Amino acid sequence: MEAKYVYSFEEGNKDMRYVLGGKGANLAEMTNIGLPVPQGFTISTDACNDYYKNNETISDNIINEIEEKLKELQEKQGKTLGGEINPLLLSVRSGAVFSMPGMMDTILNLGLNDTSVVALANSTQNERFAYDSYRRFIQMFSDVAMGIPKYKFENALDKIKEAKGYTLDTELNVEDLKELVKKYKEIYTKEIKSQFPQDPKEQLMLAIKAVFKSWNNPRAIVYRKLNDIPSDLGTAVNIQSMVFGNMGETSGTGVAFTRNPSTGENKIFGEFLMNAQGEDVVAGIRTPKDISSLKEVMPKAYDEFMKITSILENHYKDMQDIEFTIENEKLYILQTRNGKRTAGASINIAVDLVGEGIINEKEAIMRIEPKQLDQLLHPRFESKSLNEATVIAKGLPASPGAACGKVYFNAEDVVDAKNRGEESILVRLETSPEDIEGMVCAEGILTARGGMTSHAAVVARGMGKCCVAGCSDIKVDEYNKEIRTEDVVIKEGEYISLDGSSGCVYIGKVEKTEVSLTGNFEKLMNWANKYKSLMVRTNADNPRDAKAAIKFGAEGIGLCRTEHMFFDEDRIPAVREMILSKTLEQRLVALERLLPMQQKDFVDIFRVMDGKSVNIRLLDPPLHEFLPHDDETIKSLSESMKVSVSEIKRRIVDLDEFNPMLGHRGCRLAITFPEIYIMQAKAIINGAIEATKEGIKVMPEIMIPLVGEAKELKVIKEDIKETIDNILEKENMKIDYTIGTMIEVPRACLTADEIAKEADFFSFGTNDLTQMTFGYSRDDAGKFLGEYVNRELLEKDPFEVLDQRGVGKLIELGAKLGKSVKPNIKLGICGEHGGEPSSIEFCYKAGLDYVSCSPYRVPIARLSAAQAVIKNEK
Amino acid sequence: MEAKYVYSFEEGNKDMRYVLGGKGANLAEMTNIGLPVPQGFTISTDACNDYYKNNETISDNIINEIEEKLKELQEKQGKTLGGEINPLLLSVRSGAVFSMPGMMDTILNLGLNDTSVVALANSTQNERFAYDSYRRFIQMFSDVAMGIPKYKFENALDKIKEAKGYTLDTELNVEDLKELVKKYKEIYTKEIKSQFPQDPKEQLMLAIKAVFKSWNNPRAIVYRKLNDIPSDLGTAVNIQSMVFGNMGETSGTGVAFTRNPSTGENKIFGEFLMNAQGEDVVAGIRTPKDISSLKEVMPKAYDEFMKITSILENHYKDMQDIEFTIENEKLYILQTRNGKRTAGASINIAVDLVGEGIINEKEAIMRIEPKQLDQLLHPRFESKSLNEATVIAKGLPASPGAACGKVYFNAEDVVDAKNRGEESILVRLETSPEDIEGMVCAEGILTARGGMTSHAAVVARGMGKCCVAGCSDIKVDEYNKEIRTEDVVIKEGEYISLDGSSGCVYIGKVEKTEVSLTGNFEKLMNWANKYKSLMVRTNADNPRDAKAAIKFGAEGIGLCRTEHMFFDEDRIPAVREMILSKTLEQRLVALERLLPMQQKDFVDIFRVMDGKSVNIRLLDPPLHEFLPHDDETIKSLSESMKVSVSEIKRRIVDLDEFNPMLGHRGCRLAITFPEIYIMQAKAIINGAIEATKEGIKVMPEIMIPLVGEAKELKVIKEDIKETIDNILEKENMKIDYTIGTMIEVPRACLTADEIAKEADFFSFGTNDLTQMTFGYSRDDAGKFLGEYVNRELLEKDPFEVLDQRGVGKLIELGAKLGKSVKPNIKLGICGEHGGEPSSIEFCYKAGLDYVSCSPYRVPIARLSAAQAVIKNEK
């Protein structure tokens, strides 16, 4: 069978999104369930890939198929493209497999030329409409298909308006528009060195190519990266007969969500504009009206629309985002798709749909993108601080959350600020796809124009980023880089705070508060616990983090780093004394001073974790990290320690390393200075005894870092066991403790069978394991890693998403070898990846027992762990 | 069956060396082939291990076995241990599985006490002999078994000699000796707080324990490490009835090699002393006579001995090292073993034995320890320089080779010098086992006393280290740290040169010359080529090294590092300019300047390697390695480049890395700066064209370093291929070239199937692979690696000997995955391990095609490669 590249809407269905794109598949589906969809056809994503394969040309067979479908469409519509009597006009839109709002380009009114514009004027009896449509088409086509800058056309328009003294576009009369069409064609000719194409088929082919090309425009590439969309999917092209919302006061256009995308409330949510085309709503030029008011304007169309929204939501079993146009009171549905929503809405909708019997718990769990939870888990403004804060303006609560930052007025400045380590707020009149990178880097987004479905609002919600949109209380002066209100001027670099849930804009920094799991969120998390099999632990080095993690459902500590405890101001002198000791005796004295402090650390953590496992990693970093490097501190250290400055400097130089990552650290320290781990072991067990005596259930796991050879672990374990067992015997106590190791050196994975003989548990330290497996220093890789990801040499930054093909293989091998000698060995992961959804699924499949992540990622990990089980059931 | 721990000589044979030790097994073998061996029995190595297992006690069942065998021995001899009439005297000697000369301790004349000494005097009619034996026994027992310092006894002896005005020990009469025995017993009592043990069985058990203990004395441990002898083998103990070479002028003792251990000449080589015990020969106190003169002194014994040497050599099919004693004209063989020999002798003997039909070629190949070849491959003195040099003394040519260094007078100073990076000569009156570490660290050894079989000579030959022994022309003043001859004084730290083949000692530094493969060495190497299957290539970055390697039989270049070419004084300015370029254009200009220089490098190498493969690795190190770090060079660079100092410094800081090993280097440079590799590719192919036009056969292999992901290699390969193919097309030439990669990052091994699709060859870069697999920075690991090897946490330094359990697993995986997609992919290794015998055997077993090593290691690699095949045939 020959490949098929073009499908009429009647030939498709919703499951064909990989062929027809999301939009095309849904247009087909709606057509087939009898909804009023303007007729048309879809050019498949395969055609797009074919286009790129053929060096950016459309194959003849595809052209033939297009012409055939166009012929069918003309017959169905009884109109001819470019026809002199009843001309067929087309919209040409992209339609990728996964929704990429604002990323791809659209051309409307295609088919207009100097002849058909007259025919359109005749057939609609509306000459102004016809010429308005023609000038819009010329501009859109020139911009989108031919790359002529939009402002050239806008300047021409402004000039006419100025000359005539108009303020609104609607004031332009037919003659003005005819003049404008002439001007626009001149601009085209000047830029392209040829006449504006009068052949509608040429227009069509150029438009299709433009859609294909836009698949690889920089904004699209950024969006795909941001949303993990493979770059080889390609985009489909939807060719649809035009319907017009701008045919006068019985026409209009709008978008609506079947539920509230910000809160999840089960109530239609949307906007419309009378006498307008679709872009007018999303572009935010005119402020649209709430969908509910359509009832009064056009009750019949409204009722029909409401019926259709209900049909669509039930059909797709999810909240829908629907575009519609009313042409002379007749309703058309132009698009439906699963609506983007905030994390909060996402949860509420999923839980509600379960309550309504539409989906089940597992489906609800699968509906939530784990990463999206991030926005629910970040602090909100503290109410006390909020009460004291000064509101300078109020806009639309476009995407919830709390954000503080310095204001910057364009994407580049925000990116620069981010690189300098500053938190910033992107402030724009209105955002456009060019702002995407700035939106990624900003803490929050503030726009002066646009509604709840404006670009800024939709994209920010998708990102889970705080956004206040359409804030007409402020003047945004992008040129002078300042925000002005009646009372205040805020200049570039000054702080503001945004509350995305209330729409309030505050001057200065407003304090944030902690968040917790309640209501539907809690319900969903409980379902997650019901289905997940991986335990979720947390990385926490202090009682505060441990408490926060427990609140989020952490089932233990997977990594308690002890070195952070050493940096404390009270302790660092003793640590330095220990390091600078010349003899074992001196070192023992210094360690003796540290012992009670470490012991207290552990008691405090044991109290918080009562009944839950606490995995404590013994000292890991190279000793030079604890030594000062500035002359002043060295001098004061010299005085307090009564050691000469030169002696200290000599020691610092001695300890310096070429590659500290691969140097004298981790268990290697314990081989040369066994007394350090022995002190830590004492502190742990003394702490455990103290806590146990208070009635607390203590479950310590002692973790030896950086083991690469079983014998290292063996000798260190013997020292620790001896230390602990002596103390327990003396105290006549029994405390169950285990001793295990980080698996973070490639060799540890390769020899995991030998290491397992000595270990009660393995915790895969995927940060270091990634560094060594790739040979990337995390501190240095910035110089090339960005380029690697951009050029797709690597799919992802392997420090964020576990590299399953390389590092993952080592983990699988380590797990397999470990279990081969000790089937019940406890296996976990404690690198950054422990909170990353795809990495968690990998851990589940690799047979690990737990993942450990930062406190705020615990819910993400719980949800991901549940999804891993459900996904792999199929 | 109950374990057996004690074997009479009749019960053993030569194949039981793991049970009886080498000495015991050979004593048993000789006993059973009817040679005159003093009767006795051997306590097995198992008994030694049992001793250590039981917390350093000898089990009762072993004691019972010993007593039983002792009873048998007494019956056979018709004597009783400690008997009052005809007392049995015993020697107690250690006997390890592998010969460890001078390492273990011996006690002679055991069984003497205040009663049996009288009986011995009576039975031998030689009272002086009896008391001399008794005082020797007390001293040896006290020293070896009880740890009383020897000098205490020597002082007592010296006092008597002084009081009586004697110069020689032989001047002591019976009364003197009786007095001395009394004194010695007093010393014993004072030190040990108990009487000297009179019970011979107590003496025996203490002596056996002393042997067991000596297995773990520090010298023994050092020797084992040096010679790769496992520490869990244990030592056997040989208990043998005494025979006396010191019974007067019809008695004597000696050692002989069946061939010359220094040259391999097929002629008996040995020394003896009349009226002496064995230690007197090896200790170097009296200067022994050549074995040939025994013919005149005792023709009958000499003839019998010659017959026996021939029997033994034919029996063992190898050159033997034999100890003998003549007691009252009766010859006894006390020991035989395969004699230690120089590398040169080793080759000559092996080749001669093939010529004599005693062994075959393969056996000859297996006879040579590849590492030993090292001594043949090091430069000798240049004859011109030698003619001009001043000989200050001449000693015995104890171990061949040429050595230059600063003189030091004790082992510690030599070790310190080595640590400072100095070459040194260890100068001693005579060496003892305490000097082992100094001998390891010295370039050569010079002693004033001792013969060809003295400690210094034997150990130096074993190590392949140059040694001039018994150089009585010089006075060695260890106290004032100087060497004095009639004419000159050489102080500590001044240079001398030693010729171990002539025995000459030169003042100052004598130039050395290259060596080559000729004669038997060449013959053996040709046999090696006949049996080996691995190709042996060399690592060479310049024509000089390439030439040297070809002379040694290199079959190609396995690693030509291009960065070394960049450090050249002429080039570094252009390199720095390239690095400091702000734009691509500037960088291209600088690279254009480097191009002709690189091209010349390659032409020169291609000329030398005519017809052989040349594997060229493109730029590998991080760019900051090429930048200056001292202010002066920065300033002059600033002037020559017309770039401000601060700009240069900023760039240096920019390029600085936390972990350069894991930083922006290797192919990562080519991802960010593709133009660098493109320039190198041009230089290679232009060079190849130039050489081809000269009629040279060029086989370039282009190697991309540090690949961790197939896509890296893919994009770089495309650039290079395009560059080269364009040039070849333009020149209308055809040159076969291949493009492959280093496999040196763990992830490359893990994803080798994907990488193989893009690679014509893999070259395992085991230096970096070891660093990353272990997580050891080679530059920093010195801080702990020594301790790891000493404490046996690692068997070997993994940078010297390939870690087969860890790194080896990755190599096997990489080779397997690579072949799974490309069965004929060429596989090699180019790390330091390519010249290390056990690593080469691993490479053979892992299915690699070639190894590559430094030029001087090529013969070692060829031999190892042949041995790998032969070993694995079995």
UniProtKB/TrEMBL annotation, chains A, B:
Residues 422-503 form the PEP-utilising enzyme mobile domain. Residues 58-293, 303-344 form the Pyruvate phosphate dikinase AMP/ATP-binding domain. Residues 519-868 form the PEP-utilising enzyme C-terminal domain. Its EC number is 2.7.9.1. It catalyses: pyruvate + phosphate + ATP = phosphoenolpyruvate + AMP + diphosphate + H(+). The active site is at H455 (tele-phosphohistidine intermediate), C830 (proton donor). The keyword Kinase applies. PROSITE patterns: PEP_ENZYMES_2 (PS00742), PEP_ENZYMES_PHOS_SITE (PS00370). Substrate binds at R561, R617, E744, G765, T766, N767, D768. It is an enzyme of class 2 (transferase). Mg(2+) binds at E744, D768. Gene3D superfamilies: 1.20.80.30, ATP-grasp fold, A domain, ATP-grasp fold, B domain, Phosphoenolpyruvate-binding domains, Phosphohistidine domain, Pyruvate Phosphate Dikinase, domain 2. It comes from the Bacteria. The keyword Manganese does not apply. Its cofactor is Mg(2+). Keywords: ATP-binding, Kinase, Magnesium, Metal-binding, Nucleotide-binding, Pyruvate, Transferase. GO terms for molecular function: ATP binding; kinase activity; metal ion binding; pyruvate, phosphate dikinase activity. InterPro entries: ATP_grasp_subdomain_1 (IPR013815), PEP-util_enz_mobile_dom (IPR008279), PEP_util_AS (IPR018274), PEP_util_C (IPR000121), PEP_util_CS (IPR023151), Phosphohistidine_dom_sf (IPR036637), PPDK_AMP/ATP-bd (IPR002192), Pyruvate_phosphate_dikinase (IPR010121). Belongs to the PEP-utilizing enzyme family. This is Pyruvate, phosphate dikinase. It comes from Romboutsia hominis.
